Amino acid sequence: MKKYIILLFFPIQMALGQNTVPLDSCYVWARENYPNLKQSVLWQQITALKKGNIETTYFPKVTLNGQFTYQSEVTELPIEMSGVTVPSVSKDRYNAYAELQQTIWDGGISVANKTLEDAILKSNLSQLEVELYKLNEQVAQAFFTTLVADQQKEVLTAQITAINESLKTIESGIRNGAIEKSSALVLEAEKLNLEQNIVEIGAAKNASAQMLTILTGETIDKNASFIYSTANANLSSDFLRPELQLFENQRLQLGTQQGLLSKTRNPKLYGFGKVGYGKPGLNMLLDEFKGYYLVGVGLSWNAFDWENNSRQKQILQIQQEMLKNQEATFMQNIQLLLVQQKEQIAKLETMLENDNKMVALRTYITKSAASKLENQTITASDYVRELQAETISKLNTELHKIQLNQAQEKYNLIKGK
């Protein structure tokens, strides 16, 4: 019986609830219910705030200052002339002033910083999409586990029915002394084993339903009808995985950072001004409180950075190479998964072909048994056993159909859906 319950040991991570539960709806519900989906809005808010700060680069900067000083010596003019008083400078000084600086051109840094923030936002949103896409695999696993569990239960129930019919015949033989009691005990043991498997299947199905409920936020009864659209595996060469968009956005981010580094070496042009009131003012020889102002234009340029900028660019180039290797590794792993899944699909398709042949044979055998029963050449128990064998073969066919659809759905999810 192991082959009937092998899927139940796969990771089960979801569940849902309503009378009819479409697989595609489960994907949508899981996405909308994912707590981290709210991060999308938060990332956009953070980006808007950072860009708002960057825009203040061209806002005037005003600094208010005030100071009082007393110094032990002051500059004196070594001149003595009769009738002429040479002014002296006070040792105490008072000054209150406002300084203003206005960026005229920052070398393109603010524009580059805003572009970088947009690139970072795209990378963060792409990373979120990668997280969200992983939900699809969990949803599909739990969804099909529920379907398989129902089909497996039907197979096991049919086998128990067949055993019960055999037990009737054997118990009659035991009473007549024609059959050993141990024969009945063997069947009873197998029946208990099948019943135990049914219990395990039921627990697995309940777990799947509960986990789907958690992931989707939709309460679905364990007896709900799970439906899905039958679709063949997408064998095209196109890949729609969100990881590919993430790699692309990360490359864009690194390229934007390189552009920003280039602009940090540009000269900066700015205007400045100073308005104040103090003693002395700008005239150092006038020992009285006076208002004053000055304005001007400045230019700054870091002529030598000791190749710091160059090394930073080399780091970004290395990171781009690392990103390229990560993408190549990812694609290699995807190709490996697709090869495995193709083989799984091919295996199930072959099994279904054999199932159809088996159903045809079992149907023929059952018809033949019915004819023999009418002619009383076999017992009713013999006929029931053949009928149950036909039922089991049909149920197995339906089970393998579900497994094939699950394998095809998984293949499509691996490629990107």
From TrEMBL:
One of its GO terms (molecular function) is porin activity. Keywords: Cell outer membrane, Coiled coil, Membrane, Transmembrane, Transmembrane beta strand, Transport. It is found in: Cell outer membrane. SUPFAM superfamilies: Outer membrane efflux proteins (OEP). Pfam families: OEP. Gene3D superfamilies: Outer membrane efflux proteins (OEP). It comes from the Bacteria. One of its GO terms (cellular component) is efflux pump complex. InterPro entries: OMP_efflux, TolC-like. Residues 331-358 form a coiled coil. Belongs to the outer membrane factor (OMF) (TC 1.B.17) family. This is TolC family protein. It comes from Draconibacterium aestuarii. The lineage of its organism: Bacteria, Pseudomonadati, Bacteroidota, Bacteroidia, Marinilabiliales.
